[in-house]
Amino acid sequence: MAQNNNQYALITGGSMGIGYELAKLFAKDGYNLILVSRTQEDLEKVAQELASQHGIKTIAIAKDLFNPKAPFDLYDEVKAKGITVNVLVNDAGQGQYGLFVESDIHRQLDIIQLNISSLTALTYLFLNDMIIRNEGKVLQLASIASELPGPWQAVYHATKAYVLSFTEALINELKDSNITMTALQPGATATDFFNKAHMQESKIMDSRMSDPAKVAKDGYEALMNGDDKIVSGIKNKAMVTASNVMPDTILAEQLNKIQQPKDNNKKE
Fold first, then answer.
1. Chain CA centroid to CA 215, Å
2. Distances (CA, A) of 205 to 97, 166, 253
3. Is the backbone of residue 210 left (phi > 0), alpha (psi -120 to 50) or beta?
4. What sections of the chain are H helices per DSSP?
5. Catalytic-labelled residue, pool 75, 156, 220, 229
6. Active-site residue flag, 156
7. DSSP state of 135
8. Does 8 participate in catalysis according to the annotation?
9. Contact (CB, 8 A) for 117 and 70
């Protein structure tokens, strides 16, 4: 769409999975893109693909958002290019599978840095610019995990609970502005997330997973509509609805059964 030709969407985790599918939707609607992930080669490939297909401008910026400095460096680099970010998509996020006490605490702290601290910093930096203009949109990748205690992924579920609560609070703070913020809550989705989290032995791998393109479409439409949040998928909507009436102890036990190793005696 021609009216978006001068607008930029910045997407973290934009080279694969839900982030990549979101990038395709923004590109189709004429948004220029700033794609961010850790690997420059993967970013360049996607950037060139979308630029050639849709006639948009694309910028690939490799940043490791596990690094506390990276969000600030990313913001400075974008500002130095004189680019206004009209839409911020905080898609980047990872998890780690296993019992918490048997996990690598440094890896878990890295996940908190990526899923919480970097997301918070990027939101703060780009939201301040949006407030000056009184214009902008933010899409935060939460998860149905944000509504459920998650044995075998305790830290990941907790980080997504933060993202949802943080987003809901900011939606209220922004209610009198022309800035909208949307939380996208998918369930288990067929992306590389599970490989990075070393979840191959989890029972959840045997379940039917959502299509990342469908999840992205749900999130994109909700964002453009200015919706506060969207749970993607009928099964996931039912799970979230049930979570609002069931005791947390029962929810946690259900998630334990879903996420525990296929071999019950196997801990990792």
1. 11
2. 12, 29, 18
3. beta
4. 17-28, 40-54, 70-80, 105-112, 119-133, 154-173, 193-196, 212-225, 234-243, 248-259
5. 156
6. yes
7. -
8. no
9. no
Residue-wise pLDDT for 171-194, tens only, equals 999 999 999 999 999 877 767 676
Q: What percent of the chain has pLDDT over 70?
A: 92
Q: Tens digit of pLDDT for each residue in 49-84?
A: 999 999 999 999 999 999 999 999 999 999 999 999
User: What is the residue whose two structure tokens read 């993202």?
Assistant: 163
Q: State the catalytic residue, choosing from 24, 63, 137, 160.
A: 160
Residue 262 has pLDDT above 90, yes or no: no
Q: Which residue has the tokens 């490791």?
A: 64
Structure tokens at 43: 């970013």
Q: How far apart are CA 164 and CA 64, in angstroms?
A: 23
Given the DSSP bridges, would you call strands 85-90 and 229-231 parallel, antiparallel or unpaired? Answer: unpaired
Q: Would you give the DSSP letter of residue 210?
A: B
Domains of the chain: 2-259 (3.40.50.720)
